[in-house]
Structures are given as C-alpha cells and as structure tokens.
Amino acid sequence: MPTPAEEIDVVIPVHGHYALTARCLASLAAQTEPHRVIVVDDASPDDTRERLAREWPQVTVVALEVNRGFANAVNAGVHAGRGEFIVLLNNDVELERDAVGEMVAPLRADAAVGSVAPLIVKPAREVIDSFGLVIDPTLAGFSRLHGEPLSSAVATRLRLAGPEGTAGAFRRAAWEAVNGFDPHLIAYHEDVDLALRLAVAGWQTAGAVRAIGVHIGSATYGRRSATVRRLAGHSRGYMLRRWPSAGMRLIVRVVLTETIVVLGDCLLQRDLEAIRGRLQGWSAARGLPRRGRPPLETLEFTLTLRAGLALRCRAVDPRGRATPGEQSRRPPEGREDAQGGDPDDASGDAEELL
Fold this sequence. Notes:
It is built from 11 helices and 11 strands. Helices cover 35% and strands 18% of the residues. The chain starts with 7 loop residues before the first strand and ends in a 40-residue tail after the last helix. It is globular, with a radius of gyration of 19 Å. It has helices at residues 18-29, 48-55, 70-80, 99-109, 152-155, 172-177, 190-200, 226-242, 248-269, 273-284, 305-314; strands at residues 8-14, 36-42, 60-64, 85-89, 93-95, 113-121, 128-130, 133-135, 141-143, 167-171, 204-215. The longest helix has 22 residues, at 248-269. It is α/β, with parallel strands linked by helices. It has 2 domains: 7-219, Alpha-Beta Complex (Spore Coat Polysaccharide Biosynthesis Protein SpsA, Chain A), CATH 3.90.550.10; 226-328, no CATH class. Helix 8 packs parallel to helix 10.
C-alpha cells in the first residue's frame, strides 16, 4: 500500500532559471499534504541540475540530455512517477500551503473527475492569472478569467474545460488512458488538446477555488520572436487538422478567424511566420487519425467571433511583445532563431497566440 507521499506526484519541468525553481520548491516543502516532487531538467544551460542535487536531495530529478520541449518533459516526469494523482506545476508558480491538498480533493471525492484546475493569481494576489481553460467553438483555448478580480472565480459562468498549462491536477488513470500530452505539439496548445481528449474519453473536470498559486513569472514579459509565433502557429495548424469542427457554421467561423489572425500577424510583424507555422502543423498531422468530436458542453459558445478575436489581441501587446504567460515556453533544441526566441522558463499559458 502506498504511503501518503507516494499517492501524489508533483511534476515540474524546468529549463534553467534556478532561482524560480528554488522558490517553487520552497513553497512545496511547506505544503500540508504529503507528496513526491519530480523535477524534469530539460537540458538546462546553467547549473540547475547540480544545485538541485546539492540543495534539494529529497527531490527526484529526471535529467534530459537534449532539450525536448515542454510537453515531452512533462510526459517524462509523469512516466517517472507512480502516484495515483499527478500535479503539474510550472517552476514560476508558488503554491499556498494547502494548495496541493485542495487540488487533489476533487479527485478523491469523485472517481469520475479526471482533472482539476487550481486558481492561479498574479503576484499582487488581487487579479486572476487563470482559473483553468476556456475553449471557444473554434477550439482555441484561453486562460479562463485572466485579468479578472478574484471575486469572479466564484461568480463566473464560463465553462471550465480543464486545467491551464501553468498548473493542474490529474488522475493518473485518466492521464494514461489518453496518453498524456501529445508530443507532436512542440509548444503551446498541449493543454487544450489534453482537455479535449479527456472530455471525449468521458472524464469530468473540476475547479478548486481554494487551491491557490501565485504566478510569479507573470510579472515580466518575454520577447515574442518569430520562432515563438511560428511554433504557436504550428500547434494551431496541427489542432485544426486533428480535431473536427461541429458543423458548417463553425467551419466558416474557423476559416474567417484564421484568415483575420494570419493577415493581422503578417501586417504587424511583416513576416509569414504565422501562416508558415500553421502549414507546418497541418502537414505534421497528415496521416494521423482524426480525434473524436469534442462534447459541446466543453466549449464556451458565449465567446463569439468578436470576443474570440479580442482575446487573441489581448494575448499580445501593440509592440509585439508577449503576454506574461507566453514567455514560459522554451522551443526545443535547434528551434530558436537568431533573435533569441527563448522564452524565460518551462511553464505555459493557454492564451491563443497569433
């Protein structure tokens, strides 16, 4: 019979930025719920691995010699564990003392629940960074309640589709039933894809409003490079080919939305990275089976075409810089451009990128 600490695996993918990782680990050390910590060092360019061994000997370290990207790093960490429950956590998140216990509580209470979204707040603790995912009818995902006051967490009617990439809890049986993150999604949208696959498989999701984490990484911006935009486009193109649309009206909306988004990006950035990425993603999905049609109750139909475009615009400021969460995805080895398309850490944000 597993010990209490063996029941929960907390998986943290990292790529450098040890100071953030140390703060994250310190918040985990103060948790009231026993757990096991697995840090996946995704080929950090600094001394992260050595410092983890020296300063956090109780932590299990999965060392990847080649940078494999966010989704693959998370999958490797989950594979290294054995707990009934999995908590995914970015290294730029600090949890309040009861957060791990609050995250797994809905999983313990209801065997039909496969995933749980915590409440992630900005550093001042007055504004929501995310409370899970909301997915519009075109299958674009956004950080649910991003920028809203804390009171919105209990008052909202926006459908919860699943945990957002910054933090979330999963039942291992559910994770393994759908094979975790799709490794074809190099960066971005892997959380949206996973939420949809869990819904298709019949798993429910829940929100844990008392499981609070502070997204300290959201205090800074990262440069929105051509590589970042191309990878985001790649994931979008891949998703559009793998997932069927629910009816002709939605197909028309998808085509219209993508046309506006791609043309807007071309005009603003004066390059073709958005369309190039989408074509590469569409090609990467060639020959792969189509997913099942997403349950309509997973999608938020109050997000109209105009609302969806507004959310996309919010994801990037007028100067072409990333929103707080976008800095968090590091392209895998060999995918950075000469301008330094290296987001700051190994975490993620669900907001749709151009």
